[in-house]
Specification:
32% of the residues lie in helices and 26% in strands. By secondary structure, the chain is an alpha/beta fold.
């Protein structure tokens, strides 16, 4: 039996980061995964999707906005398959990098399916069918999640897809119904629309990007309508039927019953945890009603020596959250003092066009809490860099405690807003006030000046609006 201080089940952005941090702290570590290093994020999620979105940005500029920049084409040809192949190259490069890091830190990688047989042992059926037993002083479960689908709906990978099939297929659908207007639905809507696909979004909640600030959702809806993306909100899917031609999506909403016909349907309605068949119940690990693994602020389960991180905990299903949890967990195992994660203040980003970025509370949430709030806003149409980029839809919105100037949240939609988040989250984490943001000198012209201008606006001292 191979013995380690820590064995990690799952090599995604939670698992492999936890492995590296544990190794840095002098612990012996092994990691197990049944499919790939880097998990969903690096292989079929965050990373390849961003490569596709860059291609989509270029495609949209060439197809729709060439005249704005002074160029035209007689016979423009867009190769969607080439975009997908480039995304695979980007993904492969990063996953090879994770493999290099495992070797660098002397972390054995075991490819296979793991099951916890006791609080200190794991049985692995490796990819070649052999059994291997690992002994661990600590077990970290980092198995992630999988797409949720409707009861009675069969994902066939041809006409009905989840993100997994969608991101790997090299053919561009001529028409698609996307069910779910969260981050995945919005990003695929952006990609396919940019290449000329007819896109219809179906969302059961009252607005697209339903978890974002209401003004952000409204701005995105306006931008999507301008791009020709149809959005049906307050609309539920009743059933999906496939035929030789494609799919029929039966929906019911405020406009009554409709049948939406398209070549494909993408189901993007959420995720379920990968907590089954791990031996959790047999070892008395507590699960929530939705089968997430219950953990404390140190990422420990109710069973000493068994820990969990990432999507399988159901805390906040984001790669950077999983990585942060992984570091925190490794440090807790090593006996270091840890600081709990404030999930409300974690940065969030959706890479649609325009981008969305946010953290903290929305204006509605703060009003419901009875907070006295100042709002600082600044439109990108008044930002010189955004105008120069010809990408000036959207705004920065910062929410501030009226009495003390404490930053309570920020909600942005516009060019590269995901890159603007760290200044605000760093300020909030270190208890800086809106005054420090307003007085921080920002280079000109930059998109980040919009943060300064919104901060000045919150103080009633806006210069350019």
């Amino acid at each position: 039996m191979d013995k380690f201080d820590v064995v990690i089940i799952g090599a995604g952005p939670g698992g492999y980061v936890a492995a590296i941090r544990a190794a840095q702290l002098g612990l012996s570590v092994a990691i197990v995964d049944k499919e790939w290093l880097g998990g969903v994020c690096l292989n079929i999620g965050c990373i390849p999707s961003k490569a596709l979105l860059k291609n989509a940005e270029v495609a949209h500029t060439l197809r729709e906005r060439g005249k704005d920049f002074g160029f035209t084409f007689d016979n423009l040809k867009l190769d969607y398959a080439a975009a997908v192949k480039r995304s695979r190259q980007v993904s492969d490069r990063l996953t090879r990098g994770v493999g290099f890091l495992m070797k660098k830190y002397n972390i054995p990688v075991v490819m296979g399916t793991a099951k916890i047989t006791s609080t200190t042992t794991i049985n692995v059926i490796t990819v070649d069918g052999t059994a291997r037993e690992l002994s661990a002083g600590n077990i970290i479960i980092a198995t992630g999640s999988h797409p949720a689908v409707f009861p009675g709906v069969t994902v066939d990978g041809e006409k009905v897809l989840t993100y997994r099939e969608a991101i790997l297929q090299e053919k561009q659908p001529q028409s698609v119904v996307i069910i779910g207007a969260g981050a995945i639905g919005l990003e695929f809507a952006t990609v396919w629309n940019s290449y000329g696909t007819e896109v219809t979004l179906v969302e059961m909640l009252p607005r697209i990007a339903p978890l974002e600030d209401e003004e952000v959702s409204a701005e995105l809806a306006k931008a999507f309508t301008k791009r020709g993306i149809k959005s049906l909100v307050d609309t539920r899917v009743q059933k999906i039927e496939t035929s030789a031609k494609g799919v029929k999506v039966f929906v019911s909403g405020k406009d009554g019953d409709q049948v939406l016909e398209a070549e494909q349907a993408l189901v993007a309605i959420g995720f379920k945890p990968n907590s089954a068949d791990l031996g959790l119940e047999e070892n008395s690990v507590t699960l929530t009603l939705r089968k997430h693994i219950q953990v404390d602020e140190r990422m420990s389960t109710n069973v000493p020596g068994i820990w969990a991180i990432g999507d399988v905990t159901g805390k906040l299903l984001l790669a950077h959250v999983a990585s942060t949890q992984g570091i925190l967990c490794a440090e807790a195992i090593a006996g270091l003092e840890t600081k709990p994660i404030d999930y409300a203040m974690v940065p969030r980003a959706t890479y649609s066009q325009p981008q969305i970025a946010s953290f903290g509370y929305t204006e509605t949430q703060l009003k419901e809490q009875g907070k006295a709030v100042k709002v600082g806003k600044f439109p990108f149409q008044a930002n010189g860099k955004a105008l120069g980029m010809s990408d000036y839809a959207g705004f920065v919105k910062i929410l501030v405690d009226d009495k003390y100037g404490e930053i309570l949240g920020a909600h942005m939609i516009g060019p590269e807003v995901s890159e603007l988040l760290p200044e605000l989250t760093l300020a909030q984490q270190n208890e800086l006030t809106i005054s420090e943001i307003a007085r921080n000198i920002h280079a000109h012209p930059t998109l980040s000046e919009s943060l300064m201008e919104a901060a000045e606006n919150a103080e009633g001292k806006a210069i350019h609006i």
